[in-house]
Backbone:
């Protein structure tokens, strides 16, 4: 009986600790969301993120609060000799948090650290032909680990950000993977608001994914980057890039896919043009 009482007491203390910690985090986030976006940060975003300049004023204000929270909670680390500056932190944070605009934000809960290289970097790869395991390397612009960091190449960040018409934005791409991975699996199906939404999501994205695979195989032109034909997870990430940067073309050529992404992100980028 005494042991049961001790276990109950310990469990109660642990529960109180976590509840208190959660309430404290929510209060801190509320303060950060309400804080003005520093003028020097706003100037960085206006210069480095042309997509920001398209946003309605209400979204710009909302994005400033999200960036405040993001930079308070996430750690940036420079790799390959890169020194992390406010320009790097704010430029990346502003793009990442566009994915959280106008909806209930979970602030990328599994993410703690963003690693930034100065240029494209080489990552170790392991492949197998069925009998032999082969170690190698591949050059990368960025990557997203399910329970680890997001890794980005700064020159790819700036290149993809400034060219708003190419639908190639490594920050939007890798942070779309973070959203996809929140349910524990990177499969091209992020957590949707309603269970009933998964049927339409699966139908539309599967059809569009197969169509992109066909275009890649036949060397036909496509609105979306054909890297999206790699697998469903990459398709969702590429579709996200296209949704934000080539919204008009996507809506015209792929209306059902555009509507699914509009319902998910609670945004209509065509209205910003």
Residues:
């Amino acid at each position: 009986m005494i042991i049961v009482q001790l276990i109950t007491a310990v469990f109660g203390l642990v529960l109180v600790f976590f509840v208190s910690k959660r309430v404290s985090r929510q209060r801190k986030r509320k303060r950060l969301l309400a804080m003005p976006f520093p003028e020097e940060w706003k100037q960085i975003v206006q210069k480095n993120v042309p997509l920001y300049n398209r946003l309605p004023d209400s979204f710009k204000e909302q994005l400033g609060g999200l960036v405040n929270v993001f930079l308070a909670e996430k750690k940036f680390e420079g790799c390959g000799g890169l020194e992390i500056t406010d320009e790097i932190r704010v430029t990346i944070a502003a793009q990442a948090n566009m994915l959280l605009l106008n909806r209930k934000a979970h602030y990328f809960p599994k993410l703690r650290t963003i690693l930034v290289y100065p240029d494209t970097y080489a990552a170790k790869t392991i492949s197998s032909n069925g009998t032999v395991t082969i170690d190698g390397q591949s050059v990368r612009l960025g990557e997203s680990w399910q329970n680890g960091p997001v890794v980005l190449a700064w020159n790819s960040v700036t290149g993809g950000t400034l060219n708003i018409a190419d639908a190639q934005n490594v920050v939007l791409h890798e942070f779309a993977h973070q959203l996809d991975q929140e349910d524990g699996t990177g499969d091209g199906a992020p957590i949707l608001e309603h269970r009933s939404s998964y049927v339409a999501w699966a139908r539309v994205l599967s059809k569009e994914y197969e169509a992109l695979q066909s275009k890649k195989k036949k060397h036909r032109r496509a609105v979306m980057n054909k890297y999206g034909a790699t697998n469903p997870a990459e398709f969702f990430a590429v579709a996200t890039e296209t949704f934000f940067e080539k919204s008009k073309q996507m809506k015209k050529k792929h209306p059902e896919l555009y509507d699914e992404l509009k319902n998910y992100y609670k945004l209509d980028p065509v209205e910003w043009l």
Summary: Confidence is low (pLDDT under 50) at residues 13-18, 125-136. The radius of gyration is 21 Å.
